[in-house]
Structure formats: C-alpha cells, structure tokens
Amino acid sequence: MLPVIDLDQVAGEGDLLPLVNQVLLRSDTFLLKNYANSESLGRWIELLREDHQITPGVPEFDGGTFTGVLPLDDQLSVEQYVNDENLSASTSPSNVNCQHILNNLWPMGQFFTQTAVNCYDKNNESARLASKLTRYVQTVPDGDEASTHSITINSSGLLSFFPQATGIRVKPMTASIDDNVWETIDEPDCILVHTGSAVHELSGGTHSTTPIQINPLICSIYLTIYPSLQDNNVMQTFMREQIVEFPTMGQKFYPQEYNRILLNQEVKNLIKLFHSCETILSLYSVQRPTNGQINASIQTTVLPQVSTMLGYKISFQQFLKMMTLWPQCYEMEYNRMDEDDLVIIIPRNNKLISMVNDSRKLSYRKHALAW
Predict the structure, then answer these.
(1) Which of 8, 146, 178, 259 would give a disulfide with 34, using CB separation of 3.0 to 4.6 Å?
(2) Which residues contact 32 (CB under 8 A, 6 or more apart)?
(3) Euclidean distance between CA atoms 229 and 200, whole angstroms
(4) pTM for the complete prediction?
C-alpha cells in the first residue's frame, strides 16, 4: 500500500519536509490527498481524454528541444513540452486544458521537488529546475483499447506528478526491480508522485527508484520535473531517456547514441541470461545425485526453465549469442538424441562451486563488457 500525505492534516509548509523525508526513506512513490482545485483538475483531465485530436499548431517532434508531437503507432500519439530554467508555465502548450493542468501542477511540483531536494541537500534552497509535460492522444476515437500496451517509464528526473492516480502500475515495495510484479493503483482523487533517478543520485544511492507503468488511455497526462537541463550531464542523461522512450525519434536524430544504447542493453540482457542459466543448472545438478557427469539439454531443459524464470521466451539463438561473449563459460557437445540440440556437460566434482558463484558471474560480466 502506497504512503499517503493528506494535505488537510498538514498544518504548514514547514511540516512537509519531515513527512516527505520519511516517505522517501521507504518508498519511491506516494499519494497526495486533498490538494487544491482537485475537482477542476479532474474535469480538465476528462476533457483531454475525450479529445482525440492533436492540438492544432503543435509542430512535429524536434530532436533538439524534445518538444512537439510524435506518432507512436496508428492509434496513439504523444505531445510533449519541455521547459528549462524555471520558465513560466504560460510558455508551454496551446491546448487550453493542458495549460490549465500545467498551471496547477507546476507550482505544486516546484514546491514538492524543492522539498525532496532539501531532504538530501539542505543547502540548496532554490534548485534550478526544468519541466516536461507529456500528453498521450488516442487519435482513433473508436480504436481498440486492448491493442494499446502499457507504457513503462524510467524517468531520469527528480519527481513525476500524475494528476489522477489511476491507470498506473507500480512496483510493490517488497518486489525486486527485475520481478515482473506490479501493483495497480486506482485512486482518482489523489495525485501520484514518483521519484526518478536524479533523486537516487542526489541521495548518494540511499534512495532507490523503480520503473512505473501507465495505461496512456487512462493516465493520459503527467508532469516531470528535472534538474536544470543547462547542466551537460543532466542533458545527456535526459537525451538517453528520450531515446529509450521514443526509439523512432532516437533513430532519426541520434542514430549513433541510439545504437550504443541498444548494444549496452543487449549486453545487460545477456549478463542477466547467464545468471539465470547458472541458477537453473545448479538446481538441475543438485536434483541428480550421481557420481558421473550430468548432461543438461539446452533445448528441453535449460531454455524452458530459464524462460519461466525470466518471464519471457529465450531462444536457442539467444543462448548461442550469450556464449559468444565467453565461449569457455560452458563445456558443450552435440545431443546424441537430437542433432539440432546441444547439451551442457556439468562436471560432478565441485559442481556447486563451479556452477554458481560470484567469481563466475563476475568473470562473465568482465568478458561481456570487454566485448
């Protein structure tokens, strides 16, 4: 259950710092209840959901300013507005309902972001901030809602504000970031606040943040606040976030960085695959108490169990790709029962030590990064 800050129970602004600090010590997400203009905010959001038109006059997405409209598929487009250096909210969208929402979220966002910053940097009394307003538009009024997938957000910002806490899934506090486990949030009378990686960095690693998922047809607009994009490191991180979130934009405007991100992600996935193989092979060998060598079929034993562990299908080609980064990680031979298969030979001697330990994982990571 998410922490809730009831603003009716807060006597003054000074009382919010210890409250926010307490929340951030145990969670990357919290709800704001009984905030000003909640009824008006809900009305503007509903009008946006019913509006299936791209805002007139909004230009195509600009890879330099990261502002404009970008089609995501044949049913869904995104409008995005980026402001830097504490610019007034009035400089942003021409859509009147977007403008109303931004005018309400921006002052609140500034205050809570500054409060979060002060939890870790008490000397920074006036942080320089940038903002990004994101609106999703279902451009086909009678489109198939089932075909619209959840969108995963990995923000590099400080705080994101979702003006209605509905159509959102967050990681439970007890779940690992790699677990495919989500908690559905349906609190339309609350604002959901979620931390980004900038808070993790600001805290020196004491605060951790996880991805968040939204249904863009329900949670159609949100505001993210960043450190000033005038900082080159912040800007580079923001650019990489945008490339991951909008791959077609990355291919068009930043092809070299886009390919580098793809390669890094592929290497991370192969490292994760190796760790899973180690676990599966260890369990497999323990379940077969024999003095001879143990042969584990890749096609019928390893891949199905690794796929179950990871939550998605792993192909034989992916396994072979994993092997190319460290060809000596496993001893293999052709499967005598299936010419299209290979078997991994697990030596009986010291099999637990040889199959699963940190040195093997570190060795694979070293070979992968060197590759």
Answers:
(1) 8
(2) 4, 5, 7, 108, 112, 190, 191, 192, 193
(3) 17
(4) 0.82
